[in-house]
């Protein structure tokens, strides 16, 4: 059972945990969730998941002025170096995730390490001090709807349910808010402190498990980047199979941004539908306009 709390006086702290690698969506995330989140935990690594140390410094330093209005709620954790996994760890990772190619296993280890990095900080600040909390465990481009996040802090019945992780079932967009995928996205999740402790620091574990979910959970923005940003993402992330020349052709990427075609050239082919951007909340509409300008006019 979740421990009993005096809910009015001791409401759970809402914690937003995410990895960061320079994505433009960070500012929208902070702006959108600022009023309903008690602490943002932003984790950036000096290395990218592919293992190449090709970053020119830290993005949190490069964009420090943009972050300044949110610093009272923003905690930044830096991974100086990814550890090297032993053979047993890599084998266990491949056994657990069937989609991992042998040549990508160490890159996936780094991604998992990155996502889990905040767990010790959360345990030290909240668990050890007996503070009730609800962490949102998302990638940065998985934007929870602030309306449902507010319920996690205001409804004791909902908070109790979160002893089992609940996925946030999101509308799924590609490139910008013009292109919507037919299937929703549901890897991001919320959990309370009991469920968090049951994970033993493995925040990755619940992302692909078919647990209960909340519909209307938010918006997932896949590849919400400039052409150059998409190329950088493909060359640096754990999906090493998409880092070759055929996938990082800027002309092909720009064509897909405009027409909604599949930059990963996968089968079955994505079916993207044009979405009515004006039906989205105003902050998302504003971000969409700025992103489309970036995609059209910046490399």
From TrEMBL:
A molecular-function term among this protein's GO annotations: beta-1,4-mannosylglycoprotein 4-beta-N-acetylglucosaminyltransferase activity
InterPro entries xref list: Glyco_trans_17 (IPR006813)
GO biological process, one term: N-acetylglucosamine metabolic process
Pfam families given in the database record: Glyco_transf_17
Any Gene Ontology CC annotation: membrane
PANTHER family (UniProt xref): BETA-1,4-MANNOSYL-GLYCOPROTEIN 4-BETA-N-ACETYLGLUCOSAMINYLTRANSFERASE, BETA-1,4-MANNOSYL-GLYCOPROTEIN BETA-1,4-N-ACETYLGLUCOSAMINYL-TRANSFERASE
Protein name, per record: Uncharacterized protein
Species the sequence originates in: Tribonema minus
């Amino acid at each position: 059972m979740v421990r009993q709390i005096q809910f009015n006086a001791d409401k759970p702290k809402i914690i937003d945990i995410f990895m960061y690698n320079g994505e433009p969506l960070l500012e929208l995330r902070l702006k959108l969730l600022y009023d309903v989140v008690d602490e943002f935990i932003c984790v950036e690594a000096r290395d990218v998941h592919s293992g190449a140390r090709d970053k020119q410094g830290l993005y949190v330093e490069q964009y420090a002025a943009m972050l300044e209005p949110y610093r009272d709620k923003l905690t930044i954790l830096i991974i100086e170096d990814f550890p090297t996994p032993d053979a047993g760890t890599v084998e266990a990772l491949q056994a657990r995730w069937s989609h991992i190619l042998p040549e990508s296993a160490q890159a996936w280890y780094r991604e998992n390490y990155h996502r889990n990095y905040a767990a010790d900080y959360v345990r030290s600040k909240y668990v050890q001090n007996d503070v009730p909390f609800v962490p949102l465990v998302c990638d940065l481009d998985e934007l929870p709807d602030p309306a449902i996040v507010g319920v996690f802090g205001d409804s004791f019945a909902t908070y109790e349910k979160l002893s089992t992780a609940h996925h946030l079932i999101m509308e799924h967009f590609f490139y910008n808010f013009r292109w919507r995928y037919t299937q929703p996205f549901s890897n991001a999740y919320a959990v309370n402190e009991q469920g968090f402790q049951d994970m033993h620091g493995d925040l990755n574990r619940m992302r692909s498990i078919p647990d209960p979910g909340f519909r209307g959970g938010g918006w997932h923005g896949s590849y919400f980047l400039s052409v150059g940003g998409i190329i950088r993402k493909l060359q640096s992330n754990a999906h090493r199979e998409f880092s070759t020349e055929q996938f990082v052709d800027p002309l092909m990427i720009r064509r897909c941004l405009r027409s909604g075609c599949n930059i990963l050239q996968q089968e079955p082919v994505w079916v993207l539908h044009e979405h009515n951007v004006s039906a989205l909340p105003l902050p998302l509409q504003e971000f969409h306009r700025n992103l489309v300008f970036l995609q059209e006019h910046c490399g």
